[in-house]
């Protein structure tokens, strides 16, 4: 679990099915967020990334801060259930903690394809009613949506907040992120919201992007950056709430929001299903 400002230097227990010989996106991200659920191979990959000009640690912290503001906004709109796709390892404050600040009974289904996420979430959240984790691949939305535990956790007859935060850039153009989002949209009840944060190639320094792309590819985690227009296609059938699709620190900043521009341009938006 990561909490701001802490790094502990011991190897966590290896849950079943977890490969510690290859870096994982979830564990690299955990390391960048000062978490302890990562292994030597992840730390090495993260340190390599940090050598690039992308500034991945600041990017990760800005993404988490966006998550907190976006979920806080949704909870204040009365959204009482959340589907967090590509949820990552437990990080505080988590989606259920933020939502429950406003709606104590809020329900959350976390979905991730990395077995370590499920193992750690299950261990940490076992005693929390209304919060579950499902292991599934977002690239197969039919399988995600037909998962029994997910259907028990989310009532698609009522508004839901669907979160796709810092995950769509791990989905290639061929895998068609807009079609994936559309599958979830079809199940969402009126009043539902979608929140997205995703890397863009627009406005990025091409040399820096080439450097970062090479590093991720070297860690066998290729990423796909989209133009602003391609990102807007994800919101087909939704209306963006103010201020629209903007750099993460610019989305409804609060007093403590670090508004220094991000080096690796990443956009975020929250949108409501069109009536
Ligand atoms: C950078 S982390 C973001 C975590 C969290 N959403 C956040 O914004 O703080 C990306 C997460 O997406 C997960 N992920 C990547 N591709 C996925 C896929 N196809 N299906 C499910 N999860 C995926 C990774 O395992 C990782 O935990």
Give a written overview of the molecule.
By secondary structure, the protein is of the alpha/beta class. 37% of the residues lie in helices and 15% in strands. The chain is built from 10 helices and 8 strands. The protein has helices at residues 25-32, 40-51, 56-76, 95-102, 115-125, 141-145, 148-153, 177-187, 206-218, 228-233; strands at residues 81-85, 107-112, 131-135, 161-165, 193-199, 238-240, 246-247, 266-273. Strands 1, 2, 3, 4, 5, 6, 7 and 8 form an 8-stranded mixed sheet that branches. Helix 1 crosses helix 2. The longest helix is centred in the first third of the chain and has 21 residues, at 56-76. The chain is globular and about 45 Å long. Bound molecules: S-adenosylmethionine. S-adenosylmethionine (SAM) binds next to helix 1 and helix 3.
